[in-house]
User: What shape does this take?
Amino acid sequence: VELAARAEEARLQRIENERRAAEQEQQAERAFLASVTVGVDGVTHQLERLKEGCSKPDFDNALDALYTLFSQICSKPEEIQFRRVRRDHPKFLEDIGRHVGGKEVLIAAGFKFAEM
Assistant: This one.
């Protein structure tokens, strides 16, 4: 009986720790999102950060990917598939997301992060 009580206490403690960690992660994400200026000034600033934070070939590749993304949205704004970007997608991470200012430029352009 004592062993079962200790196991239950440990389980409850683990659940509480996981809840706290998830809450801290959500608070950090909200702070991150709030730190990005939305609009033309924000996009300009994040593109400058992107340019400063990576090599010329990486910056050119990121710009090409952003151009493709925005071109698709403009050509077919009704297509939801073009308006969603999976932030854990390998191609997004390779071209844009891994660079300083990469995710932020999308936030500045009006994208919202949603739970995956």
Observations:
- DSSP finds six helices and no strands in the chain.
